[in-house]
Amino acid sequence: MNARRVLAVARKEVLHIWRDPRSLGMALAIPALMMFLFGYALTLDVDNVPLAVWDQSGTPDSRELVSRFDGSRYFDVRLWADGYPEIERAILERRIMAALVVPRDFAPRLALTPPASVQFLLDGSDANTATIALGYAEGVAQAFTREDAARRAAGLGLPAIPDPIDVRSRVWFNEELESRNFIVPGLIAVIMMVISALLTSLTVAREWEQGTMEQLISTPVTGNELILGKLLPYFALGMTDLAVSVLMGKYVFDVPLRGSVALLVVSSGVFLAGALSMGMLFSIVARSQLLATQLAMMITFLPSFLLSGFVFAIGNMPRPIQAATHVVSARYLVTLLRGIYLKGVGLEVLAGELALLTVFGGAVLLVASRKFKKKLR
After folding, report:
1. 166-196 per-position pLDDT tens digit
2. Residue 208's Cα: distance from chain center in Å?
3. What stretches in the chain show pLDDT beneath 70?
4. CB–CB of 239/28 below 8 Å?
5. How many whole angstroms separate alpha carbon 242 and alpha carbon 266?
6. Residue pair 293/198 in contact by the 8 Å Cβ criterion
7. Which residues contact 241 (CB under 8 A, 6 or more apart)?
8. Those residues with Cβ within 8 angstroms of residue 196's Cβ, 6 or more apart along the chain or in another chain
9. Which of 59, 88, 249, 359 could form a cystine bridge with 255, CB 3.0-4.6 A?
10. Which of 283, 278, 276, 205 is nearest to 242 (CA)?
11. From CA 145, how far away is CA 80, in angstroms rounded?
């Protein structure tokens, strides 16, 4: 391989990118835009669930219970209802998502024959949010029950009955349970995969469509030199996108970066080489910019978004789908980035994922090199 010929091809590609504002804009602006939009719009947190209250008891005890719900960050009382028809209408009109119904005999039952029952109604059309809201409601009710029992025991001069199990929970690595800390590192992997494959999917196909491939074929440049020379400028652009994404994660979304920056750069560079090679392969096979970009979007975006563990936990997927995720390279970078960002772990833990990324990148580059033929059909 001749370095001068590789650099000559790279220089030609740089000039083309510089003279094509669309490619340059797509390479630099779209990753920042995707980071901004997904970082703000995609959240798994459930706060301020709109709540209706039907307090039939109207006692200090029931008002105390309702204030626990309204005072928490998880619920926001939007409606004081007078019956089930009003609650049902509010749920149908999507003004509320849950309703707390306190029966008339709540206070006497709480004082004389506990436990006192209350009803918590949920709109199950959004099953995920409903499940999370139900967990919040049970937590608020348990805290109220525990403190009320302790208060009544103290009033009677009795010792409070301790809970059979004392659970002292503590969250590691994402102490505030912010979904943004979980999403942003995975989002970097998805953005790099999609943008890289899209950019290089145009390169070889463009040469064929514009009729300039014949000129390249007539030069001494070999196939491997041509592929490597075309990849180098986009590799630099991809690393620039990585820097922008990391800086946005740090200073816009305030996501902690606890691990090694060097390991993050190396891992992302290895992944980027594989993603760029995949786009190059699409371009070589399709020989059409439109078809190559369609292939890049279909084969990179959906698997990276759905099967990388970025949003949906791979362990919860059916076993055949879990097996299929092993060929999605973004899966390994998502694991690497979350380990580096949130847990601060190094190669002693992440070496397996980095090795698989290296194998993936090498295999795709090898296939692209074999598929490219310096001859006219």
Report:
1. 677 788 888 877 888 888 898 899 888 888 8
2. 37
3. 114, 159-164, 166, 374-377
4. no
5. 11
6. yes
7. 27, 28, 31, 191, 192, 195
8. 234, 238, 272, 275, 276, 278, 279
9. 249
10. 276
11. 23
C-alpha closest to that of 331 among 307, 356, 348? 307
Q: What is the pLDDT of residue 97?
A: 92
Q: Count of CB atoms within 10 A of residue 341's CB? A: 25
Alpha-carbon Rg of the chain, whole angstroms?
A: 29
Sole residue written with tokens 């103290």: 154
What residues pair up with 54 in beta bridges, in sequence order?
101
Cβ proximity of 12 and 210 under 8 Å: no
What would the DSSP string read from start to end of 175-224? TT--HHHHHHHHHHHHHHHHHHHHHHTTHHHHHHHHT-HHHHHTSS--HH
- What tokens appear for 265 in the block? 């750069």
Query: Which CA distances in Å does 169 have to 166, 255, 285, 330?
Result: 10, 23, 54, 32
Within 10 angstroms of residue 282's Cβ, the number of other Cβ atoms is 28
> What Cα–Cα distance (Å) separates residue 291 from each residue in 273, 279, 283, 286, 311?
22, 12, 8, 6, 28
Instruction: Identify any residues that bridge with 101 across adjacent strands, giving them in sequence order.
Output: 54, 119
283: tokens are 């371009």
Q: Check if the beta carbon of residue 18 is closer than 8 Å to that of residue 245.
A: no
- What's residue 48's pLDDT? 87
Q: What is the DSSP letter of 125?
A: T
CB atoms within 10 A of CB 165: 5
- Residue 44 token pair: 């798994």
- What order of strands is seen across the sheet that includes strand 49-55? 75-80, 49-55, 98-102, 119-122
Question: For residues 69 and 75, is the Cβ–Cβ distance under 8 A?
Answer: yes
Q: How far apart are CA 94 and CA 78, in angstroms?
A: 11
For position 375, what pLDDT does the model report?
61
Helix, strand, coil percentages for the chain (3-state, nearest 5): 70, 5, 25
Q: Which residue has the tokens 């910019």?
A: 289
How far apart, in whole angstroms, are the C-alpha atoms of residue 187 and residue 288? Answer: 29
Q: What is the pLDDT of residue 194?
A: 84
